[in-house]
Amino acid sequence: MKKVTRRADVVCLMSSLATLAPLKEVVVPAFEASTGFRCKLAPDPTAVLLSAIRSGTRADGLIALEAAVVELAEAGVLDASAIRPLVQSAIGIAQLRDRSAVDISSPEALRSVLLSASSIAVSNTGVSGIAFARVLSDLRISHEVANKLVRIEKGLAAELLVNGHAEFAVQQLSELLAVPGIDLIGPFPEPHNARTRFCFAPFRETPKSPAIEELTRFIFAPQAASAYRSFGLEPLFTACTAGA
Predict the structure, then answer these.
(1) DSSP per-residue codes, 132-162
(2) Gene3D superfamilies under this entry (predicted)?
């Protein structure tokens, strides 16, 4: 079994890419500055995290899709009694900054944009890729758009906008907003804007420590809730005061 970190003053948090930006930019720096502990982030799409965990990788905590967290808890990998809903996210579309305004306010407008696009970056393994495939099917344009898709196995789809490899990028709103130099066109319109829930849970086999307890408080602190909102995530918790 592979343990990502073993030092008592360092905690490892495996995280979906959807929550990476607020964790990296706000939550972890605040945690480290206030407590003296360190946090090592191990970010990947939930499917990649699941594969690693099934292969024996362990950390101190996990933030991932609700279904994956529940599955791992039922398998005895995560502490089922400590699962906490964290945020929910929507799927959206982005383009490079300062491009012409794009309208996706209705299913018909979204359909027109996708059909006229030259290329669309999308995750091949993440939940956004699965959701986007469903949207294309519902709009009945799967075949027409198939040859425009630029698929990535992991990482941030909007990075392909910056390097010129795609005209549009589709991913979780928080993942799109994590890339500088892009404009978020918006979430998909009803009825194509299904929300995805993410939860936090500690690993059952990892000894409880002051560091992971403190990190948990910071993950659910008011400052964290504000950070999640700034990246297009909707908190699913009542914020507690970090360090209280």
Answers:
(1) HHHHHHHTT-HHHHHTTEEEESSS-TTHHHH
(2) Periplasmic binding protein-like II
How much is the pTM?
0.84
Which residue in the block uniquely carries the two structure tokens 């720096």?
A: 29
Q: Which domains does the chain have, with CATH numbers?
A: 10-88+196-235 (3.40.190.10), 89-187 (3.40.190.10)
The tokens for 229 are 């909102």
Phi, psi of 180 (to 5 degrees): -65, 150
Coil, helix or strand at residue 18: helix
What type of residue sits at position 14? Answer: M
Question: pLDDT tens for residues 56-65?
Answer: 999 999 999 9
Give the residues across from 11 on adjacent strands. 39
Q: Which of 87-101, 121-135, 195-209 has the highest mean pLDDT?
A: 87-101
